[in-house]
């Protein structure tokens, strides 16, 4: 019986909040998340794919590898608040001229779902466009911590301004058992949220998961309930890939003493 109540409450929530992203989220203060990129990706023989990313240097954006699948053209929007308002004075669009998926990225397992976009020209850094902070060490245990996801979601489904603004939600990090059964084999480099009523959407793949001011994760995959995103969802951890990021970008990370940067 309690289970049925939960399901009904969820359905009721969906009818008003379908295109919000993440579900059960708050609207971010304008430009309070200045490192978040909106990605518009042209895919051969398909519709435009929306994804998210983060600016890690003026020349590179960090995102999910799956966002680059089949991409023929990548546009990176920075300084965005209302994703339908390109007249916004802070809005800048940059062309991505290379997509670097992790060499071990595996579409069927979802392992190593991490990618980089090189920008054709460097992004302007200003009040509305800034670099995200990456971890400087490996985390021993993230389970139990509260982290923050942000995204625009399926913005084009709505003309309602509330559905077009960048939103965020705080979610508790769980253990790998929280990924079951939809994601049966999460690996060391993946994070599973504990039960939460906040969800990112497929349009948020590549969005940052933040622990205070540090990006610890990348939204990469979701399960569905009647076509609607639901738990479990899964994130790629950033900390196991710091060497790979440094090797493939102009980013340098000062390694914290007494911590080893993983090689992967
Ligand atoms: C992806 O993983 C599956 C399952 O482990 C494996 O069978 C497949 O060969 C892998 N694909 C690539 C391209 O490595
Ligand atoms: C939303 O859809 C309209 C009409 O299909 C299109 O003109 C517009 O460019 C889309 N918005 C974005 C952000 O792509
Ligand atoms: C990064 O580059 C160094 C030096 O070439 C190499 O030893 C290391 O294996 C690389 N790491 C990754 C993750 O690519």
Automatic annotation (TrEMBL):
GO MF terms, alphabetically ordered: serine-type endopeptidase activity
Keywords, ordered alphabetically: Disulfide bond, Hydrolase, Protease, Signal
Spans through the membrane: none
PROSITE patterns recorded: TRYPSIN_DOM
First and last residue of the signal peptide: 1-19
Peptidase S1 domain residues: 10-250
GO cellular component: cytoplasm; extracellular space
GO biological process, one term: proteolysis
Record protein name field: Peptidase S1 domain-containing protein
Species the sequence originates in: Photinus pyralis (Common eastern firefly)
């Amino acid at each position: 019986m309690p289970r049925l109540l939960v399901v009904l409450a969820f359905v009721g929530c969906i009818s008003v909040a379908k295109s919000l992203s993440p579900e059960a989220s708050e609207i971010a203060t304008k430009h309070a998340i200045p490192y978040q990129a909106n990605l518009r990706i042209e895919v051969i023989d398909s519709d435009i794919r929306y994804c998210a990313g983060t600016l890690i240097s003026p020349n590179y954006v960090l995102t999910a590898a799956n966002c680059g699948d089949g991409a023929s053209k990548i546009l990176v929007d920075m300084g965005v608040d209302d994703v339908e308002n390109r007249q916004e004075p802070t809005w800048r669009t940059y062309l991505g001229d290379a997509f670097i998926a992790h060499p071990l990225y595996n579409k069927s397992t979802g392992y190593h779902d991490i990618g980089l976009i090189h920008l054709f020209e460097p992004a302007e850094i200003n009040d509305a466009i800034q670099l995200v902070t990456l971890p400087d060490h490996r985390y021993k245990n993230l389970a139990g911590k509260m982290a923050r996801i942000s995204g625009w979601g399926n913005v084009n489904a709505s003309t309602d301004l509330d559905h077009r603004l960048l939103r965020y939600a705080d979610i508790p990090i769980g253990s790998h058992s929280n990924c079951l059964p939809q994601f049966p084999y999460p690996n060391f480099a993946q994070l599973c949220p504990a039960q939460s009523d906040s969800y990112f959407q497929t349009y948020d793949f590549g969005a940052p998961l933040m622990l205070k001011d540090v990006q610890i994760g990348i939204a990469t995959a979701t399960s569905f309930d009647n076509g609607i995103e639901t738990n479990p969802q899964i994130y790629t951890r950033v900390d196991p890939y710091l060497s790979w990021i440094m090797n493939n970008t102009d980013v340098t990370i000062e390694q914290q003493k007494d911590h080893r940067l993983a090689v992967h």
